[in-house]
């Protein structure tokens, strides 16, 4: 189906292009059909579609923050600003657009996710005060992780480095 013949076919192709472009922007592996759709798009068409996808994503993320506020998962902080609260019962979806961008480069509307705190053990009284949160960018001290050969830590070190955007990641065997 190279040239859509009906309005319905045009809508289907347009939606398929939008889906392919969204998948590409989020770093997903594309199918052969999606790859061909993107290759066939003109630069102008791709630019227009990217703008539309970005606009839709922005509206969705604003609505998501409103939803979190209505569930009281966005709360004021003592020193000013707001924090996002996550629990196993009310998890927070981290925006996919932020996963491949260093926090220093996040747009202002996404900085609230730097103030996200997850309470993983809310049902256990002795552990309910423990939480997981981000440290402000560039405030953590550098650390080294060493292990013995064949101890099974290569995968852990690899994942740890990937989580840090591969800065200064060297695995020595």
Task: Please state the structural category.
Answer: alpha+beta
Q: How many helical stretches?
A: 4
Uncertain runs:
164-173
Number of extended strands = 4
N- to C-terminal separation? 52 Å
State the helical fraction: 25-40%
Largest β-sheet summary = 4 strands, mixed
Q: How would you concisely characterize the structure shown here?
A:
With 173 residues, this protein is α+β, with helices and mostly antiparallel strands. It contains 4 helices and 4 strands.
List the helices and strands and how they pair.
Blueprint: H1 7-25, H2 32-40, H3 43-70, E1 74-76, E2 82-86, E3 116-118, E4 132-133, H4 154-163
Parallel strand pairs: 2-3
Antiparallel strand pairs: 1-2, 3-4
Helix pairs in contact: 1-2, 1-3
Kindly describe this structure.
There is one protein chain. This protein folds into three domains: about 1-70, no CATH class; about 70-135, no CATH class; about 140-173, no CATH class. Helix 1 (about 5-25) packs across helix 2 (about 30-40). It has helices at about 5-25, 30-40, 45-70, 155-165; strands spanning about 75, 80-85, 115-120, 130-135. With about 170 residues, the protein is α+β, with helices and mostly antiparallel strands. The model is unreliable at about 165-173 (pLDDT under 50). A four-stranded mixed β-sheet has the order 1-2-3-4. The longest helix is centred in the first third of the chain and has 28 residues, at about 45-70. A hairpin with a 5-residue loop joins strand 1 (about 75) and strand 2.
